[in-house]
Design a protein that fits this description.
The complex is a heterodimer. Helix content of chain A is about 50%, strand content about 20%. By secondary structure, chain A is α+β, with helices and mostly antiparallel strands. The chains are: A alpha+beta, B alpha/beta.
């Protein structure tokens, strides 16, 4: 008797078993993959250290006329820049200034499509290409975010392929600023390409230093996941003290933009630490036109998202347990049914004098067919899924191999039992 | 007379569901000569007839004592016993042991593994049991007598020395039983020997020799040189 004789009459059960187990393994793949991607997402944007009290910092120069008068004074600009650097570099441990601003960046001879344009995909209207008087060229206002090194690190942002920004090389008085591009820019620009932009009315050359990974995001103005895939990421310099003298017009805007920030205070710090820090910076710089806003929505949303993820994960796990149980029961029923049919065939073949090794080979072939088919179906199905996860795939293939080994062991035990015992009341 | 097979001092016990050991045979001795064509194996239900047939067939190697076939003592390992069974024995059961989803022909072919010209041998075997032309018929469409003939065709396709039949007519009516006995007689005339476990006085009477399993041993009841003893036990399989 060969495997095809043994399989005869049980093909339907074999196919059903393969699909039930494929369903089981694919669902495990999805849970495993979901678990990993969720952990990655949480660690990417909000690890435990990000559980902070967040405050908003802004200036109180809301009147445009007053603002213009204030920033035209070099002495005032020195106060602002010193105030910023005091917070950026002189804040006590556990207090971080997170400067970020999403000012659109007019880029000349822009190579990207409309999707990169500021306002695209929002309620704002994209302006389209226009003649920029500063650059004297056609420009497009592209989506951009300007941020500090502290902000970049706080949100665990990083360049692809270990290519990161050299923050020490960010010098606004040099000819070129290194920038990062969102993942959607891959194919539009390459590392080393140069862009010309109108950065606060200053013609600025930018060099593409690298790309962010897909789905890189940060918290920005209440948006828990402000994705940067289609953004031009412009780094702020580490320090701006003393820089305003060379270009008061540019730094007069930049310094206030950089004050558009959040202050992250680690949990466990005294409630007064943020006020004392600001007071200290104000005293040393002479700038006191600031206002502090609490941002409870950050924590609320953050907590909500984490809870949502965790609650759903528990739900997914519960459902998965049910799926595993149901699949195993169904697979067990199908296996039992096929085994009973094959058992009679094996017993008859044995009584006709077929050797145990021949029968063992036939059983091994069937198990190999079952689990090879299972692996093929699993690989084909997961290939079509959007969530590609090689670790989850390896885990599931290992599981298939273990299930196959366990099934083979069961079949061989069954074979031994079949050839040693004859049921007395078999028809 | 040369000896076809011999069981010497056969002792065997089986484990009961409650864990105790129940002796089945105790120093049982049995010999069958090469010229003996048929032996009826009688006994009460549970006396060990089927167990004895399984030991002779090499399906059960767990016993004490010696089993000699054609002058050679057989090992008790199942693999050499399977090879021995394939070369020398054909098995026929009361329940026919046919494969329901196979045709008549494929059922007989199932016993022809390794033979040369298996299709020709299958046709010959079917002709011998009177089923020529029925090879393509599903076995589920057969009567009891026809099904048993298919089982016999499968048993004889390898031209065995000895056919071991366990209640071969137990599920058949009297007329069909007669047809099967006629078939057995024809096969015996062509040189095949039989050991038949049975409760049927008619089958027992048709055999050349009759032995009974009783008190864990075999007792001769008679042969063609003497009458069959009266009061043959009548009950279920044993």
């Amino acid at each position: 008797m060969n495997a095809s004789s043994l399989l005869r009459g049980t093909y339907g059960r074999l196919v059903a078993k393969v699909f039930v187990l494929a369903f089981l393994v694919t669902s495990l793949y999805n849970v495993f993959s979901f678990s990993r991607s969720t952990q990655d997402a949480v660690s990417q944007s909000f690890d435990d250290s990000a559980e902070v009290d967040m405050y908003g910092l802004t200036d109180r120069l809301t009147d445009p006329v007053l603002f213009e008068q204030y920033r035209k004074s070099l002495a005032n600009l020195e106060k602002v820049t010193t105030f910023h650097d005091s917070l950026e570099q002189g804040a006590p441990a556990g207090v971080r200034l997170l400067s970020a601003f999403n000012q659109a960046m007019p880029v000349a001879d822009f190579a990207g499509g409309q999707a990169f344009e500021h306002g695209y995909g929002t309620q704002e209207t994209a302006q389209g290409p226009y003649e920029d008087p500063v650059l004297g060229k056609q420009v497009v206002n592209v989506k951009s975010v300007q941020l500090s090194e502290s902000t970049f690190d706080f949100y665990n942002l990083a360049g692809q392929n270990d290519i990161d920004l050299d923050w020490g090389a960010v010098d606004y008085d040099s000819e070129t600023i290194p920038v990062l591009l969102g993942a959607d820019y891959d194919g539009v620009y390459a590392v080393g390409d140069r862009l010309t932009a109108n950065y606060y009315f200053k013609p600025t050359r930018m060099r593409v230093a690298g790309f962010l990974p897909p789905n890189a995001s940060m918290f920005y103005q209440g948006d828990i996941n402000h994705f940067l895939d289609d953004h031009l990421v412009v780094p702020y310099p580490r320090s701006i003290t003393g820089a305003a003298e060379a270009d008061p017009g540019f730094y007069g805007i930049l310094a206030f933009a950089m004050l558009n920030a959040n202050i992250a205070v680690d949990r466990g710090q005294p409630d007064t630490v943020v006020f004392r820090t600001l007071q200290s910076a104000a005293t040393s710089s002479g700038f006191d036109q600031y206002a502090l806003l609490s941002v409870p929505s950050y924590l609320t949303q953050f907590a909500s998202v984490r809870a949502l993820v965790h609650d759903n994960f528990a739900l997914v796990l519960t459902v998965e347990c049910l799926v595993v149980a149901a699949s195993l029961v169904m697979s067990g029923i199908l296996t039992n049914s096929a085994t009973r049919r094959r058992e009679r065939r094996i017993r008859i073949a044995w009584e006709l004098g077929q050797s145990r090794s021949d029968l063992g080979r036939a059983v091994l072939t069937i198990v190999a067919i079952e689990y090879a088919s299972l692996a093929v179906v699993f690989l084909a199905v997961t290939h079509l899924l959007p969530n590609q996860d090689s670790s989850a795939r390896t885990f599931c293939l290992t599981l298939i191999a273990l299930l196959g080994a366990a099934d083979l062991l069961r079949c061989r035990t069954q074979l031994r039992h079949t050839i040693r015992h004859r049921p007395r009341n078999e028809p | 007379m040369t000896e076809l097979l011999g069981l010497q001092s056969l002792t065997k016990a089986v484990r009961e569901p409650n864990g105790t050991m129940r002796p089945i045979f105790d120093s049982l001795t049995f010999t069958m000569g090469s010229d003996e064509r048929s032996v009826a194996l009688l006994g009460r239900s549970g006396s060990g007839k089927t167990t004895l047939l399984r030991i002779i067939a090499g399906l059960d190697g767990r016993y004490d004592g010696q089993y000699v076939f054609q002058g050679t003592a057989l090992a008790k390992h199942l693999d050499p016993l399977a090879d021995h069974r394939r070369r020398h024995f054909g098995l026929v059961a009361q329940s026919y042991d046919l494969l329901d989803d196979f045709t008549v022909e494929r059922n007989v072919l199932f016993g022809a593994r390794g033979l040369e010209q298996p299709e020709r041998r299958t046709r010959e075997a079917l002709a011998l049991v009177g089923l020529e032309g029925m090879g393509k018929k599903p076995v589920t469409k057969l009567s009891g007598g026809e099904a048993q003939r298919v089982a016999i065709a499968r048993a004889i396709i390898r031209r065995p020395t000895l056919i071991l039949a366990d209640e071969p007519t137990g599920a058949l009516d009297e007329d069909t039983e007669g047809e099967i006995l006629d078939l057995f007689t024809r096969l015996q005339e062509s040189g095949t020997s039989f050991i038949i476990a049975t409760h049927s006085p008619r089958v027992a009477a048709a055999c050349h020799r009759r032995v009974m399993v009783a008190d864990r041993r075999l007792r001769e009841l008679g042969d063609d040189r003497g009458p069959v003893r009266a009061a043959l036990p009548i009950a279920g399989g044993g």
